[in-house]
Write a structure and sequence with these properties.
The chain is of the alpha/beta class and about 425 residues long. Helix content is about 35%, strand content about 10%. It has 13 helices and 14 strands. About 45% of the residues are buried.
Length: about 425
Amino acid sequence: KDQQQPLIVENVGIVVNLVQHGGMLDQTGQSDIGLNPFKEIMDVMHTLGLNTLQFTLMEDAGMIFSLDEHSGKMTWNSLSSGDGIPQPQQQQRHGRNVNNNRYTTWTMDAFRAVVQHASTLNIQIIPEIAMATRGAGGWFDTGFHTACPEYLCNTATADGIGAAIDTTSSNLFLGIVSAVIAELYNVFDTTPYIHLGHDERQESQACYSEAGVQDAKLDLFETRIEKVLDMFHIPRTNVLRWENEEGKEYPVRAGDVTHYRKTVPTSTEARKKPYFVSTNLDLEQQTATEDESSLKDGWSIYQQTRTYVHDVEDDQLPKGILATLGGTTTATYWDQLNVKGRLLAFVMALRKSDEIYKSKEEFLVAYKSECSRLWPGMDCREGSVQSPDVARKRVERVKEDRRKSSCARKTHVKVHTFPKKGVLIPADDDTTKR
């Protein structure tokens, strides 16, 4: 069989959260992962015929690039050296020392190198950033973060959900967002798409309330973002936004392509609108979820993926199907997780072929045969090498570290015990004093 058989869906690949994979550092300032593993995974994608890689460049815990303090433009090299991983150092910001050794930036040259390598393999890279609410904590360095330290440090979830941008006090933030969108579109020039993240608003109300913001005017902000897209000639049909997990549809949302990851469109009307799907396709999932579904083996991945294309009319198929790699990992961990085998099961479900596997036994014969052919000598098991408990505990530990770091950065405080109230200490003060 040809290893790159045509696929049912136009855009097929994976979502990688760069902030979690390569953007958050440990206490020593060492990055979790460098460039080479991404090049390796792209080589695997090419072998399988996958053509899309979505990079999450920003979330509430931080962002993967830096911003020039004066112009708001990306200064990709401001903290970085070598392959894009910076040396830990301190910066002066507004007269305060800010320690940057808990997050890293990639250089523009590093991103261009990855984009160029991907292009030679016919892989597009879609950049994803955040707007004003969920994920907006990544904009902290702009200085426009809504002041709600009590909420961020004592109430927000482990992922910092609920952070918000103050879009009402100045139009300068819009200029910063505009500059970032323009540069992303320039650097990631092999894809027509750009992803502008979430549009949840209710979860940010506690943050706005603490800051005394009565009306964040988010509809107006989204309208202005639409004008920015028009200015750069970016069609809204090329702009992705995550599915609203609060079940809300707001009058204005900059971006016409809904990227589902919690549900799927069920009505004919919804399916005829452009959409991507990542729902229940977390390749790092190894234990059952609340609905008892699990992707612990290749057969489970195959079955889940098939649900998005089986008996679906051509004009109602998703524009893209992207599996996710969401947790912080190392290159070794990727091998232990058996990413190659999981991607093979994923792509087998999306090939334009008359061969549909109706039983696990039937699937396993084809899976093991192709796995051995593509990667001779590889252990072609279905699941992962690492135990689920070890993997889960590692991810939870990293999330807790990210939460503490995120709180300290957004509020300029250190957190002695978390999330107990009343222990917030100014970051520049002696930590033995209240």
